[in-house]
Each structure stands twice: as structure tokens, then as C-alpha cells.
Amino acid sequence: MRGSFLRIALTVDPELPVPPVHYGGIERIVDMLARELTKRGHEVVLFSHPHSKCPVERVAWPGASSRAGRDTMRNALTLARHVATGKFDLVHSFSRIAYMAPLLAWPIPKLMSYQREISPRTTGLAHQLSRGSLQFSAISRQMLQVVPLAGTWHLVPNGVPLQTYAFRADVAPDAPLVFLGRIEEIKGPHLAIEAARRTGRRLVLAGNIPAEHRDWFDTRIAPEIDGERITYMGPVDDAQKNALLGSASALLMPILWEEPFGIVMAEAMACGTPVIGFARGAVPEVVADGVTGFVVAGLDEMIAAIGKTGSIERAACRARVERLFSAEAVTDAYLHIYEKLLARRAGRPSSAVAGEGHR
């Protein structure tokens, strides 16, 4: 870096605390990044839900909803007020880009990290208003296939804190398959059940049921749960997730949408558990086919792959996470971008970022 520590304003949407108790992928990433930056001596001020417990300096958002216009205005003004007086080196946003609207024309370096679908129109306007002081990052190459995208884009995948997930070199011969995620149709839990039934394997389902998908769960999933071959744990915390994933023969990822990343895949591999996922979204980027699991075209190929999980070395799964998806790797990548942003403001030349997306 620059030979000195940074003071960073780090933001996330207001709906969930950091870290979250159960679901909340973005909040987990922000918590991991804030802790690792602090560990390295940087000063982080986190703008987040009032009940956040991340051990850094925190500012509570006054607005509770990222989709309400009045709350968005209140949160944007809160961020602007603190940035104006807080002597920050840069702003790193995982929240709505609208929260940075008052800051866009300010010269302070800004990074907007996207974990959801990118709007070329919104990002293009923000780029113009920022006069280059705002850059962007995405968590998978699949996200960056939206063209054209204005401004400078970087690629930084999500990751997991390795100390949270214990590596398991071996599991029982009858270890179950696992599905972990929101219980809704696009995540494919019904396909995981079908794969388990057709292979004669036990399956453990875990995850929250969104209120708007309760009827679908009641009609498509609940009748399949027998408490023996197919079980449902409900939402799980980190300790439960570690135990569940670590004792599994494989994580099933039969997604029916272009999922931007899928942190649960990195969590499973950190435990040594291979992943079998449909070739959609970022699955082909996260899973090394034939090395840390299998990337398959559909249900029939998933069923065939379940019979080959014994060929996967669980140590290779952990090693891939250590190399690409650890807190250290993710933080290194973001610090590299911070250096680029600060060098640009100072008028210093900088080299291309390794793994940068495109301009």
C-alpha cells in the first residue's frame, strides 16, 4: 500500500445487521472485510443496521429500508455528513449507489461493489457525475457480461473467513447430501430432493423460507420431508452451518437463475466438501470442475456426478478457497483497488489491476 494506514467509510444496506445471524451474504462479506482491514491496521467506520456488532467504529443508518425514498435520502445525507467531517481516505460502498449521490462530484475516491444485477444506465450516470472518482467492482465475470459498462470495473470474488469453517478430511460413507440456501424455486431445492431420491441418498435441507415463497414450500417441498431420507433444519447459524457442511458428502447447487456468486459454495469447499452445481451464474467460476466438484448441465448429470464425489480430494477443495476465496485473498484484492484509486487522485501512475474486469 502507501506506507500508511487508511481510514475507510464502509457501507452496507440497512435491512440486516453486520454480521447477520442467519442469512445475509453481503453482510457476511462486509463483516469479513471490515475485520480483516482492521487486523491489518486500517481504520474502518461501518455504516449499517443499528444492531450491528462488527467490532469496528459504527454509524447506524437512520433509514431502515433501502427501497424507501425517504429512508434513502436520510441515509445518503448521513453518509455525506460523516464523509465531509470524518477525514476519510476513501468510501467503499456495498449499499445502494443512491446513498453516494451527494458524494459523486466530490474528489474523494469511491468504490461501488456490486453483489446484485448491474444497471448500465445507473452506473453510467454515476460514472459521469463522479468525473472518474468512482470506480466499480463485481463478484464474478458473469456479472460483467452486461455491456456496455461505463467507467473502470474490477473483479473481486466473494470469500469466507477460514477460521469459521473447519476442514474435514473424511466423512462417513453414508454422509448425506446437503442443500443450503433460501428455500425458493430458483434455488432448486425441489431438484435437490429429486436427485437425492433417484440416487437413494439422504438429503438435508437448510435455509430460510421467504414469506413470499411459503405457499410454494408448503406445496412442493413440505410433502417430501419425511424426517429420515429428506430432512429440513430451517435457518442455520455459523456453527450449525460449519457442522452441516463439514459432515456432508456434497453440496448440491441446482440453481435455476444466474446467481452472481453463491457464497455457500466457498463455505462448503472450505470444509472440504465438494460442490455439484448447474452451469449457471458463477458456478463455473467458483467450482473447479473435476477438482473441487462438478459443473453439470442439468439434473441427469447432477445425479451421475453424485456417484463420483469419492474421486474429489477434499484437501483440494480447501486449498482452492485458501487461494482464491479467503478473507486474506479478498482483502488483498480490495486493497489493490484502493491503491489504484488513491494513486489516481494523487496523479501518480499505476499499473493494471490483476484480475480487473474491463473498462
- Number of H/I helices: 11
Biggest β-sheet, characterized?
A: 7 strands, parallel
Give the class-level CATH name of the largest domain.
Answer: Alpha Beta
Based on CA atoms alone, the radius of gyration comes out at 21 Å
Please give the domain count: 2
CATH superfamily of the largest domain: Glycogen Phosphorylase B
Estimated structural class: alpha/beta
Provide a descriptive summary of the structure in words.
By secondary structure, this protein is an alpha/beta fold. Helix content is 34%, strand content 15%. It is built from eleven helices and 13 strands. It has helices at residues 25-39, 69-85, 120-130, 189-199, 214-221, 238-246, 263-270, 283-286, 299-306, 314-324, 327-346; strands at residues 7-11, 43-48, 57-60, 90-93, 110-114, 134-138, 153-155, 177-180, 203-206, 230-232, 250-253, 275-278, 293-296. Helix 8 links the parallel strand 12 and strand 13 (293-296).
